[in-house]
Design brief:
Shape: globular
Order of helices and strands: EEEEEEEEEEEEHHEEHHHHHHHHH
Distance between the termini: 43 Å
Radius of gyration: 21 Å
Number of domains: 2
CATH architecture of the largest domain: Sandwich
Strand content: 25-35%
Largest sheet: 8 strands, antiparallel
CATH topology of the largest domain: Jelly Rolls
CATH superfamily of the largest domain: Jelly Rolls
CATH class of the largest domain: Mainly Beta
Amino acid sequence: MNLRVYDNSQGLMLFEKHYPDWFASFKDGIEVKQSTMNSALAKGDTMEIFLEGIHITFGDTFFKKPIVVEFESNFETIEMHFALKGSNLARTSNISSDIAFKANQHNILYGNRISGKMDWSSEYFETCEINIAPVFFEKFLPDTHGVFDHFRNLLSKGQSGLFSESHRIITPDMYDIIHQIKYCQRKGTFKRMFIESKVLELLLLQLEQFTTDTPSLGYSLRKADIDKLHAVRDYITSHLDSSATLLELAHRVGTNDFLLKKGFKELFGTTVFGYWNDVKMQKANRLLNQGDYSIAEIAHMVGYSNARHFSTAFKRKYGIVPSQIKNRV
């Protein structure tokens, strides 16, 4: 299984990767590799996680100038693609229409010996790509909803294509799972079990969303505004123990509260404070399951001075009070 990425205009091979077979065995069933790139064209970091039937890549890259690269692969794969930041455009010989991702969009791609060109602009990109062996993926493709018939037909014909012509918005729950996979601290077999379960959970959220949500058809926002909205989201994620008004958040990134309110909903599919509450509760849930902190301590860590108010918010989110988790850990 090989992937080659090169810049024909410069006569440069950017990289060539040799992946293990889908069903290769690893020590403890998992292998993690990290690499750094700093060339005349780009700089960035990559983390790869290999499991039987699953290959996960986290990429953080900055291209120093706009570039068009060519790629080719000699294997068959299902890719759960999450464009976390930045945008790109791919043209392939296997798929008739261009594939363009903007920040905060996801889709599922079937690639069978896919090749083509990819346009990268000069900006920062962050992606999460989860490649799954088709035989592994097909076990979890429901046959109870017509929306899946098109993709199942592509698989049966060996014809590359997208699950949906229109991408969907990455939800806060998806971001949380991606974060848990990337920063999982478990070791060996337990790490493999945890990541496998999270990949299936993430696939579940994708497939559910394809049956219910309306497509993400593109944004009316300017790139400068999108960058400011990402800055607000990053601030929220790193300041779960604090609070701020909509106006204070807007002024922090140099915009106004109207654009923040409207743009955040358009870009992330939820309100500013709906997102903030979701990530607070997700962190609280993880901490409760770890069992290292008291409920009062966790409440303080996610911005609640009153443990009772925290318990009410937690029950509204998960249907149970924190003590029910704490008592069983």
